[in-house]
């Protein structure tokens, strides 16, 4: 009987040891798969809660030297501070611009900002950053490393151009390397990713401008004031400040901004 009990004890000890070893092995594998998070650069938001059908231009950027966070949440730019230590993160109050957009876009924006406020930890695996609230993933983002995205982020401009009259509206918006256009009475929306060459040219044209000068530009012609000609407007947002030209005849802007507008229209493949 004693011999049988001794054998059973040895079997149990070996079983427990194997189980403990398996557990340690699994833990080590998980630790290896779970990469150390270094917050730096720009990430594209790919999932909010369980929603994977999102606009292409949702972003979040981290500056690990200043602990500043910024990004685009669908309608507005946001910015603020964060603290990050041992995978735990806390976002400070986030400030944002005050644009109004379609209800569907506003809903996405609210959910994205709400997800950030709930985030407690970050997990970085296979170039994907998961924002966790407890054990729940509230947001996922992937690192953007393409040259086009870098050029777009370095410029940090939002450019809008519109040509409007009664019953007619064409507009475009360039942000984060994405060109969004709205055309016609039904405001049909289209998006395209700008080429590296187009972005470089547009950035150069903008950098040649004194943005403070935009609101002083005179319209070369005044047809929009009396015969219903389309009204043109150019708006540039940069570092939270908005610069805008006075209204002008669409197709005949002040020569100071004409090269930029012509390049915008050519890139968007829109008529004047």
UniProtKB/TrEMBL annotation:
Signal peptide extent: 1-20
The DUF306 domain covers 41-136
- Tell me yes or no: is Cell membrane among this UniProt entry's keywords: no
Name one matching Pfam family: META
- What InterPro entries does the entry give? DUF306_Meta_HslJ, HslJ-like_sf, Hsp_HslJ-like
Q: Which residues cross the membrane?
A: none
What UniProt keywords are attached to this protein's entry? Signal
What PANTHER family does its record include?
Answer: HEAT SHOCK PROTEIN HSLJ (PTHR35535)
UniProt name for this protein:
DUF306 domain-containing protein
